[in-house]
Design goal:
This protein is α+β, with helices and mostly antiparallel strands and about 150 residues long. Helices cover about 35% and strands about 30% of the residues. It has a single domain, classed as 2-Layer Sandwich (Heat Shock Protein 90). Helix 1 packs antiparallel against helix 2 and helix 2 runs antiparallel to helix 4.
Length: about 150
Amino acid sequence: MSENFMSLQFAAKSENESFARVTVAAFVSQLDPTMDEITDLKTVVSEAVTNCIIHGYDSDPNGIVYIRVELEGDVVSLVIEDKGRGIEDMELAKQPLYTSKPELERSGMGFTIMENFMDEFELVSEVGGGTSIRMKKRIESKKALYN
């Protein structure tokens, strides 16, 4: 069981991406992370939420993005998911520079960034059933170390 947690759900609209990023950063700030750690977390939230909106729901604003953040000691656990289309070929989707939406000028680096910025990264998807991105990061702050 986590020491502390928060859950968030919101419409799959691109204007809500910054809200999600700032909300997660505010919640995690109680562990006194460094600016680099906050930047990494904000970046992965941004990438994951954008993937849910653009790929999971194909920019359908009726979709819902779900976020759960858990704090356990000095570890942040983050789950970001949608109930959208799912990913047909997860290995292909995780390849750097691959994008299923080249017409939107997508870089195809989202999963690579998430994997590199976090200590643990897991992608679970079911075609027609949605996608869940599960990540963990240890915060190297004094407050987290001494709690």
